[in-house]
Structures are given as C-alpha cells and as structure tokens.
Amino acid sequence: MTATISNLPSLYDPFTTEAKWQKFWEENQVYKADPNHNGEPYCVVIPPPNVTGSLHMGHAFESALIDVLVRYHRMQGRNTLWLPGTDHASIAVHTMLERQLKKEGKTRAELGREEFLERAWQWKAESGGTIVNQLRRLGVSVDWSRERFTLDEGLSKAVVEAFVSLYKEGLIYRGEYLVNWCPATQSAVSDVEVEKQEVNGNLWHFRYPLTDGSGYVEVATTRPETMLGDTGVAVNPNDDRYKHLIGKTLTLPIMQREIPIIGDELVDPTFGTGCVKVTPAHDPNDFEMGKRHNLPFINILNKDGTLNANAGEFQGQDRFVARKNVVSRLEADGVLVKIEDYKHTVPYSDRGKVPIEPLLSTQWFVKIRPMANNALEFLDQQSSPEFVPQRWTKVYRDWLVSLRDWCISRQLWWGHQIPAWYAVSETNGQITDTTPFVVAKSADEAWEKAKAQFGENVQLQQDPDVLDTWFSSGLWPFSTLGWPEQTPDLAKYYPTTTLVTGFDIIFFWVARMTMMAGHFTGKMPFHDVYIHGLVLDEKGQKMSKTKGNGIDPLLLIDKYGTDALRYTLVKEVAGAGQDIRLEYDREKDESSSVQASRNFANKLWNAARFVMMNLDGQTPAQLGKPVASELSDRWILSRYHQVINQTTNYINNYGLGEAAKGIYEFIWGDFCDWYIELVKSRLQPGADPTSRRAAQQVLAYVLEGILKLLHPFMPHITEEIWQTLTQQPAESLQTLALQAYPQADANLIDPALEEQFDLLIGTIRTIRNLRAEADVKPGAKVKVNLQTDSPKEQQILTAGQSYIKDLAKVEALTFAEEQKSQTVAPSKSPWNWKTIGLVIVGLVFLRVGLAVAHTVNQIPFAGTFFEIVGLGYSIWFIARSILFAEAKLPEQLPAVLEAVPASEQTIAGVIGTVQVVIPLTGVVDIEALRAKLEKSISKVEAEAQSLRGRLSNPKFVDKAPTDVVQGAKDALAEAEKQAEILRLRLQTLL
Asked: For residue 725, which of 746, 711, 745 has the smallest C-alpha distance?
C-alpha cells in the first residue's frame, strides 16, 4: 500500500491517493465498531439524507464536521461508532415516480399499489445509493457494515412497535381535525413541514347584508374563495361598533345561506374592519371558533385543490381560478367594496412548493403534550441535551412548549403503512370516517382481534395511508442500534454521544427524537447537540435551488481533492454554529479558498519529502525519542506540545475551525517555514554527527505528530505520508486512523523560550523585509547592526545569532546600545569614564556627609556614632556603585559592541525595542531607494493626517463606539511611528 522514499512523487496527486485509502479503509473494515471492546463509547448516528438526494455543500460541510469529531475520538481511544444510513423520503420518492408515470401517460391509481411499490424498490436498488456513494468520496469514517435504511426490516419493526405502543397508551388517536393539506402531493403535512413565505397579495373587502334588511357588515379576507364555506361572522364582544349586532344573522352572498353574527374575543378589533368571516373547515382560528359556537363545518375543497359540490357554481374550478371568479361575481352583485394591496405571510408546503390549504380531514395524530412535557423535564431538570452553541437551547425549548398534536398520517403509498385494519364489512366495504378498526403488529394479529370483535365473517382492509417520514426518523438514534430488542449495540452505544445537525432541522427532527427517546427509553438520545451554520455562497447568500446559487462539492473535489474541500469547510468556521462563506468563481468553477487548502496539502507533502530524504532511511521509531541539543530543537518541541494542548482543548469544546487554523499555522509557519530552514545546515554532509542525529530525531518526531494532529481534518494525505514515513509493509493493516492521538508533555513546553524565539523570528523577518525594501539582491549578503538597551534582548539575539546569519543572509552581525553615537568594547578595568564620574559624585556625597557629621558631633555621644555610620555608608556606596558595577552587566554580553559610523547610509526597522540597521553603501542603488522612501513617507503621512482629522472631529469622538475611537488612536500612533522611522531612514540617505 505504500510508496518508498525513492519513488514518492514530487507532486501530490490527491485523486489517486484518496481513492486508494478510501478503498483500503472500507475493504479492511477499519471503522467497524465492536461493542465488546474496551474504551468509553463514542457514538454518532448520521443525520440520514434522503435516498433521492445527491451530495450538496450542506452534506459535505456536516459530514466533514462529524468526521473530525469521530476520527479524533477514535484516536483518543474511545470505542467509536459512526452509523450511516438514509431516509426513505416518502414525498420525494412519490413525486419522482409520479412524474415518471405522467410521462408514460399513467397514474398511480391505474398502476396499483403493489406495482407502484415494486417500481419504488427497483429504483431504490438501482439509483437509491447515489448519495451514499458520494458520501464515500468524502472519506467519512463510518461503519458501513451497519448501514441502515428507514424502510429496512429492523427499522420497520421498530416503527410498528412504537405505533402500537403509543396507541395502547392513548397517545395515538384517529380523529377529524384541521390539517395542513398539500394539493400538489395530495397529502397532509405536519406543522414543521410548512414554510412561511412573505408575499405581495391583496385584501378584499365585501359587504354581507343583514337578513332583516337593516344594513350590512363589511369583512376583509385574503382568500375570497373560502367565503363559499362561511358559516358565521365574528366580532369582538367588547367592540362598541358591533356588539349590538351579536345574535343577528346575515345572508351570505352568492350562496344565500343564513349565517349568525357571533361574539368571540379571538377577534382583533384593529384588523381590517373588525368583522371576521368564519370558515371553520378552512382556517385554524375559525376551526376553534366554530367548535366554541357550534357552527357547521362546510368543506368546499377537493384534495387536488379544486372546489367540490359545496362550492355551487364554482365546482371543479381550481382554487386560484375560483378566487378570481368569486371576486368577479361579488363585484357584479355589488357587494365588493375595495381591493387593497397587502403584504402578508402565506404557508407553503416544504415538499410540494405550493400554498397549503387548511382542510378538515380524518387523520392519525400523536397526542404531543405528554411527550413534549417529558422532554421539557429532561431539559429543565438535567440540562439534557446540551446545545452547542447554547443559544439554541431556548429555540428548542420554545418549540417544545408550542407544539400541537402531530398529524402522522400521509396519503401516500411509499413508506410505513399504518398498522391499523378496518372492518369494512361494517360499512359496506368502504373505509369511512366511522369504520371501526383494530391496531395490531401484523395482519395475523389484526385478524384474530377482528374476529373476536366482529365475528368470523369480518372483512378487513389495512389503512392505505403511510406514516409521516419524521415518525420513523424520530426513532433513528435507538432503532438503528436494534431497539426494541436489547442488543449489544444498544447496550454499549446508546445514548449516542453527539448529534451534529443544522439549526433548520431542530424543529423537524431534534425535537421528534428527544420526545420519542424520552418516552421509549427513558433517556435523551444524545448528550450534545452541535448546531452548525450554513455554507453561504461567494456573496454571503444562502444557497438554494430557487436562486440557482448552489456550489457542487463534487466539482470542487474533482478539481482540488477531498481533503482540500473538507479542510476548507472546517477551517472557515469562526465559532460553533456560525455560517461560513465559500469563495467561488462561477465563470471558472474555481474556489480560491479551496485552492489555498490544496496549497497547504502541497506544502505538507513537500516538507514531508524533505524530511524523509534526510532521515537516512530511518523511521521515527528507529531514530528514537528526540534529544534536543540546540535552541531551535527545544523551541519546536515546545511549540508542538503547545499546539497539541490547543488542538485538544478546541476539539473537546467544539472549536473545530479554531483547531484547524491552529494546526495550519503551526505546520506552515513554525515547522515548514522556520524549523526546517533552521536545521538544513545541520543536515549537510560534514555536519556534526551528534547535531545531525538530533535534528533527524526532532524532524521525524514532530512530522509524525503533525500527521496525527491533522489526520481528522485531512485523512487521506496524512495516511499516505504516515505509511511512507513509518515504512509500513504493503501487507500491513496498520493505519494512521487507529493510532493514538498525540498527548502533550508539559515538561517540554517552555513559554519563555517561545517568547524569545519570537524575537529571533521577528528579527529575521525584519531583516528580510528590509532587504526587500532596499532591493538587495537575493544572493547578496549584508552587514547588520542590532541596537537595543535591553540586556534580555541582547542575550536572546546573541544566543540566536547563528540563526539570524543563516536565514537572513547576514555576513557580519554586530550589536550596539540604542541611541549611542559611539561605543567601545567593554573593559574589564573599573577605571573608565563612568567610574571616574561616579567617584566624583561619591566624594561630593562624602564631603556633605562629613559636614553633617561635624554639626552632629557637637551633640554629646551622638557625634562619634554618626561619624562612624556616615563613613561606613560612603565606603559601601562607592564600593557598590563603582568597584562592583561590573556585576550588574548581563551574563552574556555581545562579543562586539559597535555602532554603524554616522556617515554610513543605512536602512532600519524595529522589532520590539530592537532596531535593525543595515548599511547600504555599495549594496544597493541609493537614489532609487531614496525615491521609494519618499513615496512611502507621503502615503503614511496622508494616512496620519486623515486619522488626525477624524480624532479632531467632536462628533466622531463623542458618538463613535469606544473601541472604534481607540482603534483610530492606535492607528494614528502606529502611522506616526512608521513615518518617524521612514524619515530616519531617509535622513541616513541624505
């Protein structure tokens, strides 16, 4: 499976590598979970994508996040299971198959249920695995041996068990209720499948005449066709305009039906005219008022959205055609008052994409309150589950509080057929709203129950409807593990550990799962719910089919590789739950952000090749634990273990984006750009053998650690490099995916050393920048003078001067104290000008002391005492300040302290309090450099002037946020400092 160092390609080919390792992982069942193994369980069940779907960017994003968590915890030694599967997607499959039938000139009814289901299963076998195969391309570390489908035998058994159990407990019932009806799919849909859309519509005003001829009332509606089913008009009983009319009757226009005026506090007196038409069979609020006031319920709609016989002359017309015709008729009859433009919210079917119709229908319902209250108790008393970010807890709680009874029956054929059998022999062979029924786990059980109740001649027919898809999905966390059987998987892996999902599915799925799990298992189905954001397009807009702004993840995978896409999606997360923006050029089908991750992969690949070519064929294990012999070794080991700590803390707290960015900065910056460059000279032929081996040990050790750190984010390239680095034989089943995740060694972490190295790196970077500013030729070596008054900085720069010379191409490095016009090499004799000055000061103090002593001497006994003290103090002061002054110098002084001659033309920069000075005479074109500096000064001074103008404006200072004002002050100080430095540079050239 592995390549050797000699034939490792110079360029990384993600496509060959990724396909190879995906095949290896799956064929060898690397991710197969075993409930009998030790280790604390870590279990994730995949949010099952629709079997009709194809991979979109949301799937890729969610799967990448989950895989980071799963791979990380597996490497941490957890007994890990990521269980995959798909949802049967009743409505989506029906829509697809009925579209095919329409092309053939057939209907579902003509085909028949059995043949229709045969077609559905045939399609599932041939094309239903599309999204599963696409998920495989993401390299997800799921246990494919446990793949589930919501219509498979085990899950179907769980669905029947749940339905029958809830029915026996009185939590499932069949009744007439107002449901959300989708005319496009001709099925009821639940509240959570309704999408509210704001539309520009109209508000129609009509006059309804009082039956006694004494006048009329004016009503307003956004759905004029529903007036055909009106059975009353309601006013607020406290509305003085209309309270005298309560109890009277109106004559309904067109239908000429006498309807009452009722008083109900639900009516908002400020809406419209304060009079509300009541259509109990076609509006949720009217439904409640109709029940309270015993109004008739008149249904005017067929299930396909056309009007039925109760609509009179408009029978057979589509609802929107009828709307226009009803308005025209009312206008002709002289009862249309006016039409207003009106922006309002219209409920749309999430699947059918058409406005839903509230429709009175006999359906199956779950009595939701007992289950929702149980879930609320877990949340309020045990903080279970825990939401990340925490702000989604309130959203989840509010949803549980407001849930109404759940309509779970769907007028479809593809799905879990409702386990209820009707005794049609009791109602002339037809299923009616009053047909008696039995609920059972099987047809045989139903037959036995029905015979006992209705006799041997009973005729049974199973309910033709199927259950809402979310009913089976609500059981997913435990049905996939074997429930209702008490399986080893259920015992080991339930409750699951983490659910990763989008915020838009909290209502659809998360609440369903917590209610079902709390009821059937007595536990919440997962400990944590990690809510991720959306992947936005290059303009920061939500991707949607309607806008046509989606980005195909497979296209980006084909162009840049799986690892590059995965890493980009995770790295872009700026905080748990935040949306991410994906850069994309639609004309070229290119993404600069994914390209950057591909470049990162290439950087790692090239660094790994360099390291392995310098290990003399040895593996990290053969080289052994590193012995840090030099400053740079200790620095990179400290940084590596700091990054382990940082990464572990981030992932444990769901800071996946922060973890990815931290690893990136360490690999690209610390390891590749600095440490590898620092040790190159130690790897050359003829280098000190001890130092060379130490460098090899550190390189191999840190590289292997880097591969482990990065593996959850970029599994394919890290596996390929690790296999080569550790020289795994072709027949070996060892894999990086099952190695232990790095653990930080506190003894190797040295923050002070890292801080010192930051100064060295900053100095090298400053010299490089100055070389670039001065247009020094890349191959030319320069002299550099470092000036600082800080003994600590002098020590650090002295200790690292070999690194500065090597990486900044410095020929000679000298040191001087800052702002001294001239210094000389230190003398070991205390008798220099400083010493002489201190002696003079000391003698003055001595003379003053003697005068004081002479005065005090006039006091009996005291004189002698103070004379002795004064003399002793003088001796101590001179000795401390003069004779032992040398002891105050730093332990490591530069070997040379000299300043650049005043006449030398130089360029200078600052890092910390260190000034970096490079003499330019004979090195660069001074005139060209002078022109460049003058241009830079003009730019910086213009910026400073602009900032001064803002800060001198009282409106800005008084009204702008404090941090903005402070930012402007900081920017001004920085600009003034830059201008000062640039002017000093220019002065050296004059």
From this structure: 711
By C-alpha distance, which of 843, 871, 844, 874 is closest to 856? 871
C-alpha–C-alpha distance, residues 697 and 647, integer Å: 23
- CA 369 to CA 327: how far, in whole Å? 41
The whole-number average pLDDT for the span 966-973 is: 90
Among 710, 619, 645, 621, which Cα is nearest to 672's?
710
Specify burial of residue 25 (Cβ count, 10 A radius: 0-12, 13-18, 19+): buried
Record the tokens describing residue 108, joined without a space.
Answer: 């579902």
Q: Which residues contact 793 (CB under 8 A, 6 or more apart)?
A: 759, 912, 913, 914
pTM of the predicted protein model: 0.79
DSSP H or E stretch at residue 131: helix 130-137
**Do 286 and 221 touch, CB atoms closer than 8 A?**
no
**Under a CB-based contact definition with an 8 Å cutoff, are residues 567 and 660 in contact?**
yes
Q: Using the 8-state DSSP alphabet, how is residue 883 labeled? A: I
Residues 131 and 56 sit within 8 Å (Cβ to Cβ)? no
Nearest 10 degrees: Cα torsion 692, 693, 694, 700: 110
Strands (E), 552-653: 580-581
Which residues make Cβ contacts (< 8 Å) with residue 39, sequence separation at least 6? 77, 78, 79, 80
Q: Residues forming the annotated binding site? A: 545
Q: Closest Cα to residue 750, out of 577, 656, 634?
A: 634
Q: How far is 290 from 177, CA to CA, in rounded Å? A: 12
- Residue 509, both tokens: 């799925």
For residue 912, name the pLDDT band (cuts at 50, 70, 90). Answer: confident
Beta strand pairing call for 148-149 and 406-407: unpaired
The helices-and-strands tally (H runs, E runs) of the chain is 33, 29
Burial environment of residue 196 by CB neighbours within 10 A (0 to 12, 13 to 18, 19 or more) = exposed
Tens-digit pLDDT profile for residues 654-697:
999 999 999 999 999 999 999 999 999 999 988 999 999 999 99
How many angstroms separate the CA atoms of 487 and 603, rounded?
Answer: 47
Q: Which residues are annotated as a binding site for ATP?
A: 545
Question: Quick check: 917 and 988 in contact, CB under 8 A?
Answer: no
Q: Is 332 exposed, middle or buried (0-12, 13-18, 19+ CB in 10 A)?
A: exposed
* Domain annotation for the chain: domains and CATH numbers: 181-359 (3.90.740.10), 611-749 (1.10.730.10), 758-817+904-919 (3.30.2320), 926-989 (1.10.287.380)
Start-to-end CA span in the chain (Å): 66
Q: What is the pLDDT of residues 728-783, one digit of tens each?
A: 887 888 999 999 999 999 999 999 999 999 999 999 999 998 888 788 888 889 99
Percent of the chain residues past pLDDT 90, beyond the cut: 64
